[in-house]
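Suppose you are handed a protein chain with no further information: no name, no annotation, nothing but its sequence. What can you learn? This example shows the usual starting point.
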Amino acid sequence: MSPFGWDWNTREALRYHYESIRLWELSAEELLATTFYDVWPFAALMREQVTLDFEIELAKRVAQAPVEREHLGDIMRRLGILAGVRLPKSTSKKLAERINAMMGEEILKESTYIQALIEKWEPVILAKKEAEGRAEGEREMAHRMAKRALESKFDTLSDEMLTALETASQETLEDIVGHISTDTLEQARSRLSLQ
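A reasonable first move is to predict its three-dimensional structure. Written in structure tokens, the prediction is:
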């Protein structure tokens, strides 16, 4: 509650008058009309419908703010982060590309904030990519094995079977290999959900 005051030895030593501002109740234009450039990124959240076009226009406007280049980089990163709260992932990626194009990658690489994010998330991302690569490799191996097994038992495969093999899950492919010695052609086709 305004004003905030502090008394010392029975006399007033400090008094602050302040006003709470609910940014979400203001228009983005009201915020952007101020010279408080550090809070401009909050404009990314200040619309009922947030679109890529709005965020790109906002980024262009922020890029024109009369602040030092290094500080501008921080403001733009905050804009990207806050916009990412409201935009879908694919759209956020497009916005990030546009911000990189506006600011240049060098200034973003110099950011200690970006470096800290990379240090924190790079091992997680690499582990995920490695696991995805391993899973894809295992699926490819299962596909090759199933195709070879079917071709060795039934000779040339129809286009329909080849297409079904391409889209089959790893479990289905392994199931085909596991039953190749006992399955008939009809049973193998059934495992691939073919009539």
